[in-house]
## 1
Amino acid sequence: MPYAVGLQAAASALLHAGFPTQFTLAIVIFLLIMHVISCFEQEQPDAPKTLPGHSLSAIHPFFRRRFDFLNWGFHATGQSVFQFHLLRNQVIVVSGERARETFFAARGLDLEQGFKILSGALPTLKGVTSDLQNKARNIIYKRLATVQRNTSLSDLIPAILEDSRRIMEGWGSGGSFDPFEKVYELIFQTTVRSLTCSEIADDPAIVARLKVLYDKLDHGTTPATVLLPWLPTPAMLKKLWATKQIYDIVAHAIATREQSGVPQNDTLQMLLDSKDDKLIIVGFIMGLLIAGARATGTTASWLITFLGANPEWRAKALLEVQTLLSNYPLSQPTPNGSTSAHLATIPLEAWEAEMPVLDSLIRETLRIAQPHSAMRRNLGPDLYIENKRVPTGSYVIYPFSDVHLDPELYPDPWKFDPSRPVDTKTPFGYVGWGGGKTTCLGTRLAKLELKMVSSLFLLGFQHHIVDINGKVADVAPKPDWNDIHMCRPAKGSCYVKYEKLETQL
Ligand code: HEM
Ligand SMILES: *[C@@H]1O[C@H](CO)[C@@H](O)[C@H](O)[C@H]1NC(C)=O
Ligand SMILES: *[C@@H]1O[C@H](CO)[C@@H](O)[C@H](O)[C@H]1NC(C)=O
Ligand SMILES: *[C@@H]1O[C@H](CO)[C@@H](O)[C@H](O)[C@H]1NC(C)=O
């Protein structure tokens, strides 16, 4: 009986151990007992049904296979609202039309707190992004609105196009690439351009380093880093180190600008001219870059993928861009006759109002390939969703798949079909840019980037999708909603095959 021997040895070792060991053990045993008791606690009648199984068994699937896990939860409980526990945190998952109406309107539900525990992807540096008080956040959002004023956004047009031209030049005369790497990389550059400064955006080496650091933050999110953020696990230390390095890059750029005494014409200058606290500036750049670059990069990657798999939509989009160019002819030829230079003369208003085809392509891409789950924490009083109590302090999740993949609202939901009619009757029938109390504050910038990048690509290249064997695929891969970052299909299962056209980029 090796176990009994082991236990006996352990017991006698313990008796001889010092006070600290006994004390620690006593605490562990106490916690275990508390835990067992809490498992037998009577469920309140208005509490959502709890997932079967031990609470610890929810951790792995919640972080690694979220889409399957949440779907299984609705199935296993047979309810449209259910709950489970992540350690001591009560998490309530809701679905259905009435639930989402309450969810998006409820005043007490807080996005930032929900995001922090359940996602943990934001860099947390004390006093910078983690304890960002409401005041600081409001200033940051105000500055983001300033960046998207007509005049500032218009100023960004040539810069974003020039970045796109330079990177697409680097793609050469043809070949194939993984859109989830190459297109994402391009969007990362244009987003850095829009949100930071020339010192960073003009230096491809720094931008590449920033991207590596941001990816580390995203992929370094393990259950432990989210649930036990104070625990110095290797993953946590790596994240902290990456955050520190991002901080240094941003702080260095600020110092360089201040020392040079030469004002530039970019977002950093706007922030400096607003006389904001330096921590606000760092928070603006670090926080928004991560909120913006990944969502926009994911969308652009899928947009190029869907265009490559749907030749008729590709043709429609190309025609739209060509029409736009002919509606805004050059008054005098540009010195080098380049496409990007011509696109740069198109006014903001035209990009926004005269591209209905691209608008519907973006809309459909977000519906089918944005694996978002809205997460909140109830900071207000108890509230009820579908007659189930959501206590103060608990977390609430609304998975976007509930509405965006609902066959009642979107027949044959996995089919990419930008011609679907826009349903304006169903409450929150489309939440690609959020809804109710929290809507995306970067929509204008994101849409503009998406339109400019895809326009230049369509004018400069021919492209289609190939599968792993290099065979032309006329169906795009199915978005994998279990990948909570990019909905990315299995690695290597899909490539963009492209050929440069005669047009000068
Ligand atoms: C295609 C690109 C993007 C998509 C699809 C997108 C989508 C969304 C969605 C769905 C939400 C609401 C989240 C929720 O309710 O849980 C949101 C919030 C937000 N987005 Fe975006 N976003 C994009 C790009 C950007 C960019 C480029 C920025 C900034 C430069 C940005 C800044 C924000 C901010 C600050 C919030 C939080 C708003 C709040 O606290 O009320 N987003 N976004
Ligand atoms: C800022 O730069 C843009 C081009 O990127 C230019 O069109 C605009 O006139 C400049 N604004 C100022 C105030 O210099
Ligand atoms: C012309 O093309 C070059 C690169 O070939 C680019 O750097 C430059 O900005 C373009 N000039 C104009 C006026 O668009
Ligand atoms: C800003 O641009 C939008 C559309 O692009 C337009 O509807 C609006 O009138 C413009 N605002 C100002 C103040 O020019």
## 2
Amino acid sequence: MQEVLNQLKELSNNLYWTWNNDFIAIMEEINRDFWKWSSKNPVKFFEAIDRQYLFDIIEKRNLRYRIHNLYRDYRKYLTSKETYFEKKFYKTDKPEICYLSAEYGLAKSLKFYSGGLGTLSGDHLKSASDLGIPLVAVGLAYSHGYFRQIIGDDNRQTELFEQSDFNSMPMRLVLDEEYRPVKITIDLPGRKLHAQIWQLNVGRVKLFLLDTFVDENTVDDKRITDILYGGDVEKRILQEILLGIGGMRVLDVLGLEPKAFHINEGHSAFLVFERIKNKMSREKLKYKEARELCYYSNIFTTHTPVPAGIDIFPRWMTEKYFGEYAAEELNIDFGALFSEGSNLYGQSAGDNFNMAYLAINNSHFINGVSKLHGEISRKMWKLPETRSQIDSITNGVHTKTYLSWVSEKIYSKNFGKDWIDVENIWQKISELPDEELWNLRNQNRKKLVEFVRERIIDKEILLHENDSKVAEAKKLLDENALTIGFARRFATYKRGTLILSDIERLQRILEDSGRKVQLIFSGKAHPKDEGGKSYISEILKFARTNGFKKNIVFLDNYDMEVAKRLVSGCDVWLNNPRRPLEASGTSGMKTIANGGLNFSILDGWWVEGFAEDTGWKIQSLENEEGYSDGQVNEFESKSLYDSLEKEIIPMFYERNEAGIPVNWIKKIRGSISKLAPVFNTGRMVKEYHKKFYSKVK
Ligand SMILES: *Cc1c(COP(=O)(O)O)cnc(C)c1O
């Protein structure tokens, strides 16, 4: 029995479990309530659970064999010599690429992410691990992470920042031979900043996160890594100094020497200075020579098409933190350092230091995250023809992370346990019989309805609401109704309330008794985004109006778990950003393998994904024509309603003798066979490797 426990503990400490549905199922079978209590964190779970109880349950439920198999698969995965990279290229134990990001979305219980940028970074690491790409990653260990969303009776979002206990999480402090934490230091005006390092294992890939909660730091400095995207501009520059400069020092103290550096969004771009500094001192070079050499091994991925979305720091603040660094470490005057971030081939950021300018000026390889975003970025930052141009690599998702237990079971029943490695698997899945694909949808939708009810009941019980509220929650939603989902950060450009533009029309759509339609919303607004918060209030008000209680739900506290439930349970995934502001978008990709269908504005990835046989589009008005926001919203919401009324709802409810919506299934076939093989991070990371990583010598 001790062996089983050791295996479970080892499994808990590698985030491999986050994309292993069987592990999650085993946790639920051991004790569902306890799994919930642990916030679905297996390390905490096994720390706290009673040994004897655990052993008894494993025997009683016959789990020993399953755990053993799971463990064997895990060991095989970790030690495989058959990875994409090793088969195609060469064998190496040393990381060659360093990936840096301000956020990582790896699991619900690791609150180091706020939205799509984070889940993309997490998925990047997972796929790098699957492919055997020699990559190491660096980020920040936020003690309070991103907030828990609380929705009050007043329909307002409030934020609760909870402290994580890193010691009970799948991460461990990096220690030296004498079991003392390994630390890095950075000179700040009048003091030193110290940080310790946490290691997370993402399959084969190691992720190192910096943490400033150490005794040597002042109270204020300890708080540098408390909150993700919180505080003022000065706190932001400190976080970014820690990520960029500190990130490079992590590699040094750990003796790692990657040759390519992937700056995922501008937050980590200060690393370019530290790399130049290291090159100067190690190879006895002048600033200019070192800068030129580093340039060819930096990779910059930009994620926003709006200049306002990019971090900028005032000149005085940049000088405060980099004045001495310029003179003493780089041997240049501050003006020269400042111009790296204020001057982009003649475009000027004025008296500000722009992190994207810094990254672009210092990276040979630059990309946007969809074809359209690549184009927009080339227009936004006109680079001279004498230098490399902005390319694009379209985002993807780590398919298994978002695949439901239901979907996974149906696939493994038909194609075996290692179904995902079967050649042309998506083509084959799309050719499953009508009944099987419809069964996949019905089961996924049913699970979602159960999940929503349970979440709401749990909340009512917590609030000591009366039994009638609980009884009401048990009747929420209908497991057979057409289910439309909208969930993502509530940034205003994503227009969470577009579908509420014409309440009467929406009412008619929702109340057609023969053809039930239900809507599920979820998402957090940034604490300072009053616009986004008011959108949430508007939806809540609407959802809580009597007539709509049953078929419109706003699920609070959107996170990776809610995302997985929604993308698998919803029949239609709605996305209506203001074009072209959605650089890529990824949540829609998560629905594909679960048989969900996309209904979206032609923005970001959907420009590439949409075809008549893969989903639906919402017509958009082009910005350049000078339409007002109101006109654009009116036109686009009309298109949204038209498609719902004329195409989507009729198609879902048009059934054959066996009760199957044959044309709907046809669309699912098109979506799975054409989109699933493309919009995944396996394809994406291979593309980064081929175009960028492998070009760095
Ligand atoms: C995938 C995901 C996102 C990104 O959603 P978009 O629709 O691409 O903006 C945000 N948050 C969570 C929790 C996600 O899983």
## 3
Amino acid sequence: MRLDELIQKVEAARLKRSEHLIVQIVAVTKYTEDIEPLKRLYNEGQRAFGENRIQVMEKKVDALKDYPIEWHFIGNLQKNKINKLLSLNPFMIQSINSYEIAEAVDKRAKKPVRCLLEINSAGEDSKQGLAVEEAVETYLKIKENLNNINLQGVMTIGAHIDDEKEIRKSFRLTYEIFDKLKPYGAKICSMGMSGDFEIAIQEGSNMIRVGSALLNSYL
Ligand SMILES: *Cc1c(COP(=O)(O)O)cnc(C)c1O
């Protein structure tokens, strides 16, 4: 779908939740190594892009360095790639999925980096992220101890299943954690992808990460 159409769908979904809810769209461009689709999206107003592979991201950051783009890293972060990622100066790392990784980023960063704590809200073994029960405690521990991790909120991938009730449940659990963390400065609740962003927004998401549904129209 085109960006305009996505924006209209987001608009309808957010009004079902609250007229005060503002939802940011991160266009996930990990499916292409070509920068033309990103330029097309940029020309229609898109500014936030999500990538999950550092090498591919590096090429795009380099090719688009004259564009005021916000780069969001959404992939599983390996320790030996952290320095490379930091050198790209990402706007935000959405995939801090353990205290250990937060510590590793903190140690290597020369200034505070915006980050989200990834939560494994569906409890699926195949997924990264903190268990729901550990999320609040870990978030507060990072905040307390790691000065270069500027935690801004939480991120999750919804349950990978066709059952809307289960998907909704994983978003609801994540929103509950977000709600508990608001007094500690959490502002972003990043949840919802191509197949489930409308459900995520109804459950309170204020940042969606949409890839395939959007990118197909720009390749
Ligand atoms: C790939 C990916 C997305 C986008 O997924 P689509 O289903 O293509 O919209 C969002 N978030 C993360 C963490 C991803 O890896």
## 4
Amino acid sequence: MDHFLQREGVLFAEEVSLEEVASCYGTPCYVYSRATLERHFRAFQEALQGQKHLVCYAVKANGNLAVLDILCRMGAGFDVVSIGELERVLAVGAEAGKVIFTGTGKREDEMRRALEVGIRCFSVESESELYKLNAVAKSMGKRAPIALRVNPDVNPQTHPYIATGLKDSKFGIPATRTLEAYRLAKRMDFLEVVGMDCHIGSQLTELDAYREAALRLKHLLEVLAQEGICLRMVDVGGGFGIRYKDEEPFLPCAYASLLESVFGASNDYEMVVEPGRAIVGNAGVLLMRVEVLKQADTLHFAVVDAGMSELIRPALYGAWMDILPVRKREDVEARLWEVVGPICESTDFLGKERSLALKEGDLLAQRSAGAYGFSMSSNYNARPRAAEVMVDKTQHFLVRERETLPKLWEGEHRLP
Ligand SMILES: *Cc1c(COP(=O)(O)O)cnc(C)c1O
């Protein structure tokens, strides 16, 4: 459930009409709902209440400081994949002790910074990384807390670009080598082996793959315990699907029961979950304006002022995301439109065959754009990045200014 609703034919974010947002801040513009964000985060907190747990929001889904701040105030931990994301969460005052650092190619300077601030855990994705991290920790006279990211080889039945737990995926350490990798880590003096991690993909709507992965982790934990390697943290990753169209995602409480049934409620392990999309996806829309209506041979195009530079999911994954008129029209007939951006690429579309009653100048809102929207945006075609606005009941706040043109070439230099 979210707080973007029609009222007398006009789309609102909480108590604020999107027409008002567009007239205050212009388009294209991302609009987030604080109440939705909080509701989704709370659902995970409450579902896991019975177990020792930490909900680490995956920053890459949406790293806006206002989003991070709201979640931080609610007690969230954070999953970061780069030094940039680490600095973002520190900038809102997050405790380093609640940060987990994942990523297949961490650099030494990133490891050093994370050790310096004292993060909760490194999720290590290769044997090579163990050696590197051990050396960095040694040079600083510290011990680095680690979990190994296990690749459990399960097929989560999602788009191949967002499946990460198959055996030939670049992520994690293959399950077959996990025990050996733990023994190796255990022998290193500057590593503290604390947990096990996995993350099998994104936008998953079936619990089966999670159950399979959890059972594999449980088995590995037992084998390790027999060797005297006892872990205290199990990080089961994120990837929880949301409804874009007609998906029927499971609820956080169903997932929590699954964890409890596999790992027990005995608090032997601290359970960490890393939802990104499930928290912020349906808490945001992309607001845009129709610039041009035109007809090709057979297709009708609505060219809007946002495109793959603002929202790349349709172009990158063929993702379907709903497109709604901000104000419903009765004076023209609905027809099928290809909703496209102004970018010079044929993949630059936001929606195909959408039934809409449109005139030039109309406002549209693309739903479920809070996750992997702004965070994957670019300046392609020299387009300044969109503004971001947070609605909180009757108030609205500019949480990121629209980029200005001079900012685009700030830091560039001509030859003398
Ligand atoms: C991307 C990612 C997540 C979050 O994925 P969602 O699908 O947004 O929930 C969590 N953990 C790791 C390690 C990731 O790479």
